[in-house]
């Protein structure tokens, strides 16, 4: 399904005029090498573009990004290989950068061999050409001696950036005169790779098109996947003979034609190069797109915002306002595909794909692929956001925030299991119950940290309500405090919040340690063991309160214990521990809301 869908997306790109001409590829370039007519380097021009990006903390940061240019198709071989119009620093300058500076020597003599190949092959191909930039380039090839340039001040100024930067050539004083745009050079270069990627004479039925076509022996590499090889990693590959069969070698075993191979690899590389179609979830690179081409790109923008929390093409305030409106309708059962059809002329019958990719030792591993109509998918994502809400204020909860809350706040390097993230994606997209491990992981995190916030409570509530919905039971957990809820675990959570507030109200100063720090985890697991002690403690705390405070809290405690029938559960299992936490959080927020309302009333008097 993936390769076929990517081929369809390639056809959409071709129809919209976004396909790079055959024989060329896009290449990022950081610096221009400005050449004098005699071949000496006049300057290294920083050719990067400046852009402003909003960070997750709301701050706007300015950063530099390389320019993308068209160059003759780049070599993808891991060994030393020639590119017409070279961009790699090792080939151009023949120098390695180390902590001790530049050197033309290395253990395998790769720098010297690479530069020699670049110089000899380039001189051979531009022989007979006569333009100012070509003549300057020829002079550079003939006069540049790597061993004599180890102290070159312009290269030293680059420092560590040298190794990860790419270069293009221009004429000094005329940065608009570029070697890769020279017509004479392009006439020569378009033939440089003829026959280098031929598939041989294996012609058979293509597994995607069903037509008899030449089969690709080696598939082009995919770049832009986190953790993959810098030069790219193949999606389809049969490197070792253990995977060969019926006398077929390498990717002849895949039965994917050369034409299909070029289409799907181009489409996937295009998506991975565009931040509007790619997000990173720990070590999984997530790619998503809508079929139909440019007219349906708005679908991608909305899903990017609703699921991942951001889109550079949408107005954040307006989109958040729209999301809140739709979530309210979803909570009232009034949201539907038609809700989105009215937005930006969205065609809700368009297929939408979400793909998760992760590299292994030899190729890319497909962790998940989900396809659904965009209208149904957007509805499912909004339902997910609605399920995550607590309180009257609707706020979108991006996936990165859920992932963050599952991790220990003391560990930045902790990764969430890829299988869990795949299961969460599936639950969101198809509206099915969330994986049990999401509930258990969040409950454990809350007990370990003895801390619960709106996102953590929202995840627990969403997991429990979806399980009830799947079993056709009434959703028991509401957006705010539910005084009609008689679930024993929920009532225990409410009671714990009340007892904590009694302790805090009795204290003359802010407490360093409350009953939550000492008893929250055990109270959520074994209420019958803990609550008798907590109620005894609360009697001492009540003595320090005013008469009105004693009356208010005593009535509240009596009301909750009355619904418990004076008996606490011995043990709470996972789901009931989650209900305990929701009861605690909602009762705690109700106290906070009451304080806010009292302050507003005092200000109005």
Report what the structure shows.
With 605 residues, the chain is of the alpha+beta class. Residues 193-199 and 599-605 have low confidence and may be disordered. Strands 3-2-9-10 form a 4-stranded mixed beta sheet. Strands 13-14-15-16 form a 4-stranded antiparallel beta sheet, sandwiched between helices. 44% of the residues lie in helices and 14% in strands. It contains 20 helices and 16 strands.
List keywords for this structure.
605 residues; four-stranded antiparallel beta sheet; 14% strand
* Major sheet: 4 strands, mixed
Q: Nearest-angstrom radius of gyration?
A: 32 Å
Structural class: alpha+beta
Question: What's the end-to-end separation, in Å?
Answer: 66 Å
Number of helices: 20
The share of residues in helices is 40-55%
Beta-strand fraction estimate:
5-15%
Question: Care to give the gist of this entry?
Answer:
With 605 residues, this protein is an alpha+beta fold. It contains 20 helices and 16 strands. Strands 3-2-9-10 form a 4-stranded mixed β-sheet.
Topology:
Elements: H1 2-15, E1 24-29, E2 31-35, E3 41-46, E4 49-54, E5 60-65, E6 67-72, H2 89-93, E7 96-98, E8 101-103, H3 110-125, H4 132-143, H5 153-158, E9 167-171, E10 174-178, H6 183-189, E11 203-205, E12 212-214, H7 258-272, E13 278-281, E14 284-290, H8 297-308, H9 316-331, H10 337-341, E15 351-359, E16 364-373, H11 374-387, H12 399-406, H13 418-430, H14 436-449, H15 454-470, H16 488-506, H17 515-525, H18 527-542, H19 547-563, H20 574-604
């Amino acid at each position: 399904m993936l390769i076929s869908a990517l081929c369809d997306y390639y056809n959409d790109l071709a129809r919209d005029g976004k396909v790079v001409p055959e024989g060329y590829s896009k290449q990022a370039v950081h610096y221009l090498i400005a050449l004098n007519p005699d071949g000496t380097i006049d300057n290294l021009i920083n050719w990067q573009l400046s852009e402003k990006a909003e960070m997750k903390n709301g701050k706007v940061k300015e950063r530099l990004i390389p320019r993308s240019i068209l160059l003759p198709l780049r070599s993808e071989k891991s060994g030393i290989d020639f590119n017409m119009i070279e961009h790699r620093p090792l080939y151009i300058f023949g120098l390695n950068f180390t902590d001790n500076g530049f050197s033309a020597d290395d253990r395998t003599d790769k720098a010297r061999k690479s530069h020699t190949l670049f110089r000899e092959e380039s001189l051979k191909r531009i022989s007979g050409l006569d333009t100012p930039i070509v003549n300057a380039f020829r002079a550079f090839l003939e006069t540049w001696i790597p061993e004599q340039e180890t102290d070159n001040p312009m290269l030293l100024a680059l420092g560590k950036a040298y190794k990860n930067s790419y270069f293009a050539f221009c004429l000094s004083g005329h940065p608009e005169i570029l070697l890769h745009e020279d017509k004479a050079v392009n006439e020569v270069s378009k033939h440089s790779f003829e026959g280098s990627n031929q598939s041989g004479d294996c012609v058979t039925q293509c597994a995607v098109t069903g037509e008899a076509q030449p089969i690709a022996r080696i598939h082009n590499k995919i770049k832009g996947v986190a953790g993959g090889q810098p030069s790219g990693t193949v999606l389809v590959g049969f490197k070792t003979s253990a995977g060969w069969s019926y006398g077929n070698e390498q990717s002849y075993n895949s039965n994917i034609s050369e034409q299909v191979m070029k289409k799907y690899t181009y489409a996937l590389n295009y998506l991975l190069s565009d931040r509007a179609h790619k997000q990173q979830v720990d070590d999984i690179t997530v790619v998503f797109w809508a079929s139909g081409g440019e007219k349906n790109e708005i679908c991608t923008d909305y899903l990017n915002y609703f699921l991942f929390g951001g889109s550079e093409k949408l107005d954040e305030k307006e989109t958040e306002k729209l999301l809140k409106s739709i979530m309210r309708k979803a909570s009232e059962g009034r949201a539907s595909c038609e809700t989105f059809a009215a937005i930006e002329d969205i065609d809700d019958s368009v297929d939408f794909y979400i793909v998760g990719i992760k590299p292994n030792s030899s190729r890319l591993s497909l962790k998940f692929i989900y396809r659904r109509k965009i209208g149904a998918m957007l509805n499912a994502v909004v339902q997910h956001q609605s399920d995550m809400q607590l309180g009257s204020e609707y706020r979108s909860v991006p996936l990165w925030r859920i992932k963050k809350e599952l991790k220990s706040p003391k560990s930045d390097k902790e990764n969430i299991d890829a299988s869990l993230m795949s299961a969460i994606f599936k639950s969101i997209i198809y509206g099915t119950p969330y994986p049990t491990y999401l509930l258990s992981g969040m409950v454990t995190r809350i007990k370990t940290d003895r801390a619960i916030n709106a996102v953590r409570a929202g995840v627990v509530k969403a997991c429990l309500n979806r399980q009830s919905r799947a079993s056709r039971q009434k959703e028991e957990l509401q957006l705010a405090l539910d005084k009609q809820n008689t679930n024993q675990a929920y009532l225990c959570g409410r009671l714990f919040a009340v007892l904590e507030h009694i302790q805090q109200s009795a204290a003359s100063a802010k407490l360093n340690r409350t009953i939550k720090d000492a008893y929250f985890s055990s109270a959520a697991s074994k209420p019958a063991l803990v609550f008798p002690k907590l109620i005894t403690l609360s009697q001492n705390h009540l003595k320090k309160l005013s008469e009105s405070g004693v009356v208010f809290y005593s009535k509240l405690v009596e009301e909750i214990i009355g619904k418990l029938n004076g008996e606490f559960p011995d043990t709470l299992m996972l789901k009931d521990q989650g209900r305990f936490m929701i009861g605690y959080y909602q009762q705690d927020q109700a106290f906070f809301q009451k304080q806010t309302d009292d302050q507003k009333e005092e200000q109005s008097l």
